[in-house]
Design brief:
Elements: H1 16-30, E1 35-39, E2 43-45, H2 49-59, E3 63-71, H3 80-86, E4 99-101, E5 109-113, H4 114-120, H5 132-142, E6 146-157
Parallel strand pairs: 3-6
Antiparallel strand pairs: 1-5, 2-6, 3-5, 4-6
Amino acid sequence: EHFPEVRLVHSDKNLGFGQANNIGMRYALEQGYDYVYLLNQDAWVMPDTLGSMVDAMRANPEYGVLSPVQMTASMDRPDAGFFQKCLKGSLQNYKSGDIYPVPFVMAAHWMISRNCLEEVGGFSPVFYHYGEDDNYLHRVSYKGFKVGFLAGVFAVHDREDRKITKAFR
C-alpha cells in the first residue's frame, strides 16, 4: 500500500537463500535492470551505498560481484566474517573509493552486474543455505569476472549478537 513500486513474491515454502534470490535475479533480468543488489534480512545499507556501488561497477565492468564494507550494527568495526575474509589489517589501510579484489565476500551485501548474471546464471539449487555464496563466487571467477569490495562505502550486517552453535553449522 505504501510502496506500490515494490513487487512482493510469495512462496508457499522456504526455498532457501539461493533459490529465493534466483527468483528476484530472474525478475531483474527480465525487466532489463543492469544490476541486482542482494540484501540479507539482517542487513541494511547507508543512504549513499547503492549509488556509490553502481558508479563503481559502471567504471569497473570487470567486477561481476562487488560488496560494500560490511560493518556491525554499531558501525564501530567491520563484521567479523568480513574482517576475517576480506581485510588485511585496519580499514585505514584501504583508500576510500578504491576497489579491492578478494576471493570471497559474504552474500549479505552483493551487487551483481547484469553481464555477470547472464554469464554465470543464478545460485545452484544444490545449496539450500550456506555454501551457495562460495559456489557462486567460484563460478564468477571461472567466467572471468572479478570479486571485490568498495572501500569507504558501508553497509551493516547485523549478526554479532546471534548465537550459532557448532551443531547448527
